[in-house]
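dumping this here so i dont lose it
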């Protein structure tokens, strides 16, 4: 708290001293008490308002930047999960295609249909996938063109992947060899 005395009657000379030569002049002295913070109210309020506006603008910019960064991170995480799921699906499809082509190679493309179906569902745990095989060529000792297709439904849309390869016919009438090992293999 600051106290000031204001003298309204005393005149000052050029040096700033009061002229005391006049006797009888009335002097009015007022004591005014005021808070130090409000001495220059207009300038303090303006400064505080400027600081508050800067703090508000700074907070808004920081919020916008944070929101943008979080949006980018969430978008990247969503894309990464989607790519991971798609990669997993394609890995399963490649494995199933390889299995079907190995069955054709083992049995021979010329009499594959006598032992296996050319169209059907894959074995568990891949029952959501279907396979389709088609054979062409193979006349006069030429290789068969074998096309294997895996079909599945993803997000309500039918999807498929295909592969085509050439497989030579089995020559001769040798029976399938016994492939069971003579001794049990112990694996750790």
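and the seq i came up w/
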């Amino acid at each position: 708290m600051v106290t000031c005395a204001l003298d309204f009657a005393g005149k000052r000379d050029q040096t700033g001293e009061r002229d005391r030569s006049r006797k009888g002049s009335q002097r009015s002295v007022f004591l005014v008490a005021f808070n130090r913070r409000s001495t220059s109210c207009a300038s303090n309020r303006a400064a505080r308002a400027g600081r508050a506006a800067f703090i508000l603008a700074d907070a808004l910019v920081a919020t916008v930047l944070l929101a943008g960064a979080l949006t980018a991170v969430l978008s990247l995480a969503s894309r990464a999960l989607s790519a991971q799921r798609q990669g997993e699906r394609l890995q399963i499809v490649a494995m199933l295609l390889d299995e079907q082509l190995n069955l054709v190679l083992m049995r021979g493309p010329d009499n594959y249909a006598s032992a296996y179906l050319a169209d059907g569902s894959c074995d568990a745990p891949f029952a959501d996938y279907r396979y389709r095989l088609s054979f062409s060529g193979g006349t006069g000792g030429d290789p068969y063109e074998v096309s294997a297709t895996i079909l599945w439904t993803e997000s309500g849309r039918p999807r498929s992947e295909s592969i085509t390869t050439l497989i030579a016919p089995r020559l001769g009438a040798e029976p399938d060899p016994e492939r069971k090992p003579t001794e049990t293999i112990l694996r750790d």
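Residues 90-167 form one domain.
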